[in-house]
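Appendix B. Raw example, untouched.
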Amino acid sequence: MSIFASILLSINFLLTHPITGQANMSVYVQNMQTGEVIDSYRADHVVPPASVMKLLTTGAALETLGPGYRFPTVLEYTGTIENGVLHGNLYIHGSCDPSLGWKGRTGFLDQWLKAVQKAGITTIDGGIIADMTMLDGEAQNPNWLCEDAGNYYAPGIFALNYYGNTMNIVLQSGEPGTVAKVVKTEPYVEDVYFINRIRCDKITYDGAFVSGLPYSRERYLTGAVPSNLGTFGVKGDLPNPGLLLARHFTNRLREAGISVKRDANYIADYNPLVPPRTELYIHYSEPLSEIIKETNVNSNNLYAEALFRYLGTRYTLPGTIHNSQDLLRDFWRRRGVTVQNAIIKDGCGLAPQDAVSAKAFVQLLSFMARSNNKEAWINSLPVSGQSGTLKSLCPKTELEGRIHAKSGTIAGTKNFAGYIDMPNGETWVFAILINSAPGKARNIQTVIQQYLLDVYRQHQ
């Protein structure tokens, strides 16, 4: 069979299938070593990438900062230390590290406590202040849907992120027709106020939703949950993670016998004329290689958006969403990736306006495969049938373990972009973006899986 005939067979499978035949689609498959186009359909057509958008962000971060980069969070103070008394405030100066307190890991607070003790401080006349001024005050991307704001997967992004910017709202369900009771939050947030409209109903699924805006004390709880379920959790965002971190550190100091006179506070407005501060301690994040692995393997929106926002600070301070958009576009344009027609609104793919072509993703992936950072890049991608968001793709088939790729999923959309390791040692680079298809995402994935297997079998 000729190459031309096999391309027609592969594309026709997608174009004639009841699920994908009428979808908004962009497909490109290329042999990375020879440049041969294995398959192509509307390759230059831009479509919403969903979480495949994270490839633009993590690739740019890796190339700009390097795999060993660690985000610093700096303890600084104003005033003087005399006879064990700090006559001033102690600041937690953030630089967008998304991993502080991730999954409740707060042991770093003990290291911060030791740093304060080492400085001989027994009393702080002022308070602990979260400094979130590296970014502007626009913590919520204005291009995200209003219905997403307040949910755990669409948290506000700050220069100080903490606890995954997520709180677990523990509810107790009762009889059908009653309102579920809010029991507590984990972690405890002392000043959050819930307007609760979650009803208990005769259903078998969790239909509860959380909504609200950054810095706001109010969180709206709507939807329905199964009746008589007992206690269970619904995840929402933290309104002000930096302030919560400052409170936790204040409590840790007081528990250790260090007097902190004032309550924890925060500052969010950038001011280049602030009084000089003295550095007390620098906390470093895990290496960037681990951060982008979490971002890509588990499709972590917080991590991706924190990287996106931090990249914007390379232009100017405070970092803005507009600067991040410009930097991402300019970065990939300079590296030969066709982003002239792309629409870049965020770094994680939540914005429905995002639009990138299959060819652009293949160009990006080809560039990264030849980068000095190739090893960290490939290791950051989930593996078909084995890990992360690709665990359900091609398990127990010839392609299990042969695909390293990023997936993207929203209603009616299933996208993949990555690499296929061929038996002859060659590597194919591919992007399959299918939007507005009828049916559920898992059904679209079934079609894509069959397509990938067919193309692979024709060319192995």
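End of appendix B.
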